[in-house]
TrEMBL record:
Keyword Membrane assigned: yes
Superkingdom per UniProt: Eukaryota
GO cellular component, one term: membrane
Keywords: Membrane, Transmembrane, Transmembrane helix
Name of the protein: Uncharacterized protein
Name of encoding gene: LOC100829367
Transmembrane parts of this sequence: 12-34, 60-78, 98-120, 182-207, 213-234, 246-272, 284-303
Organism for this UniProt entry: Brachypodium distachyon
Length: 323
């Protein structure tokens, strides 16, 4: 089998041009369609980034989880880097690219949640005090007539309704908020692609003889999805399907990085066997991986869709969707 180190002959074979087209065409199509599709989407509100979708869950709990996930992901990534003698060698793999992206997402999410909680606590301190006073008064006056109690309950419901209406009318998210949502959705698609490829393709067919307990306990091919799924259960962020374009950009950037690295002689082997361009079946592998982006992103989209569809039915008094 020839390698990129064999020289120009490797890069002049027909498979390279076909595979190059399979990389370029999705990228161009995503870049062309993205502005048109974005105009038809609902705007992202600032509160969507840090207010949970559970009415009785204080935003501080979401902040705490995101801070924990950030610390755990960063520690695991640092451990993986330090465990290899060459350090940054681990970033030859798409897995580490994806895990780094997940870590960056939680860094954004933690910072924006912290800012949101701080701003909300200062802006609504007086309203919160009034609400607490109202609830305390309700407890202290249990001996009131049933009609007055009913009115108080109605007023309490009106206060909650007003609260969520206020959230719904909040200003749109800024630049960093939109970046956070983009990274969130790109991470979701990349995580699904990473885990499905690893557990469904690499382990059974390519790494069967090399697979051992260390690869299981390492956890990168499971924790990335677990971290994001828990955040998805808690957060209230929309998941517009057109942002799949950024997932495509991310994967194409990784493949382009590999091609440039090999063309410059920085690497003589392929981290993933199906990226090798010397085989006559390489275009089929590249086509299969390009097509795999659609079901992988759709899988996470359906998870979010299912959450918004079934959680209001299962938890009608706790789950509140404001988006």
């Amino acid at each position: 089998m020839s390698t990129p180190a064999d020289g120009a002959a490797y890069w002049l074979r027909w498979q390279v041009f076909v595979c190059g087209a399979l990389i370029a065409l999705p990228t161009v199509a995503a870049a062309a369609l993205l502005p048109r599709l974005r105009r038809s989407a609902a705007p992202l509100r600032a509160t969507d980034l840090w207010v949970p979708c559970w009415s009785r869950l204080h935003p501080g709990w979401l902040l705490g989880y995101r801070a924990f996930a950030l610390a755990a992901a960063a520690a695991l990534l640092l451990r993986d880097v330090l465990a290899h003698g060459h350090g940054l060698f681990v970033f030859y793999f798409y897995t580490q690219w994806t895990f780094l992206l997940v870590t960056i997402y939680f860094a954004f999410a933690t910072a924006i949640s912290a800012h949101g909680c701080w701003a909300y606590s200062k802006k609504n301190l007086r309203k919160a005090d009034e609400s607490h006073g109202f609830l305390n008064g309700d407890v202290e006056n249990r001996d009131l007539s049933s009609s007055i109690s009913g009115e108080r309950k109605k007023d309490e419901i009106d206060k909650m309704t007003s609260y969520y209406e206020q959230i719904a009318n909040e200003k749109r998210a800024g630049f960093w908020g939109r970046c956070m949502q983009i990274i969130y959705q790109a991470s979701a698609g990349a995580t699904m692609l990473t885990d499905v490829t690893f557990w469904g393709l690499l382990v059974p067919f390519f790494y069967r003889d090399k697979f051992g307990l260390a690869m299981v306990t390492d956890g990168m091919h499971s924790l990335n999805a677990i971290f994001l799924l828990i955040d998805t259960i808690l957060n209230n962020m929309p998941f517009p399907w057109y942002r799949m374009a950024f997932f495509v950009f991310w994967s194409c950037a990784y493949v382009t990085f590999q091609w440039v690295l090999h063309a410059c002689g920085g690497l003589s082997w392929w981290p993933y066997p199906f990226l090798d361009l010397s085989s006559s079946g390489a275009p089929l592998w590249y086509l299969a991986m390009a097509i795999a982006h659609v079901p992988c992103f759709s899988l996470y989209w359906f998870i979010v869709k299912g959450k918004h569809t079934y959680f209001p039915r299962l938890f009608p008094h706790s789950y509140v969707r404001t988006s």
